[in-house]
Fold:
Amino acid sequence: MSRENLVLKVKPEWCKGCNICVHFCPTNVLELDEDNKIVIARPDDCIKCGLCELRCPDFAIYLEGDEDENEK
Ligand code: SF4
Ligand code: SF4
Structure:
């Protein structure tokens, strides 16, 4: 699967604001809002490396494949 087809998704309601993903993101895509929930602040800078998904303890951020969305 080509990485370009991956879409970065977040579930702010699952985010506990630990800040791990914000720190691990190599291109500074992510931020926490005033409620300490995750926001994709700079989506254009995301290189789809998957580090945020890997490090998030709460499955609140993940890359989703375009091709698998037929059931939507
Ligand atoms: S996939 Fe990589 S570049 Fe994109 S937000 Fe997550 S850590 Fe940052
Ligand atoms: S690592 Fe997960 S729980 Fe922590 S701030 Fe990021 S999205 Fe929220």
Observations:
- The first strand starts at residue 6 and ends at 10.
- Residues 15-21, 38, 55-56, 58, 60-61 surround iron/sulfur cluster (ligand 2) (CB under 6 Å).
- Residues 64 and 70 are 12 Å apart (CA to CA).
- The two ends are 19 Å apart (CA to CA).
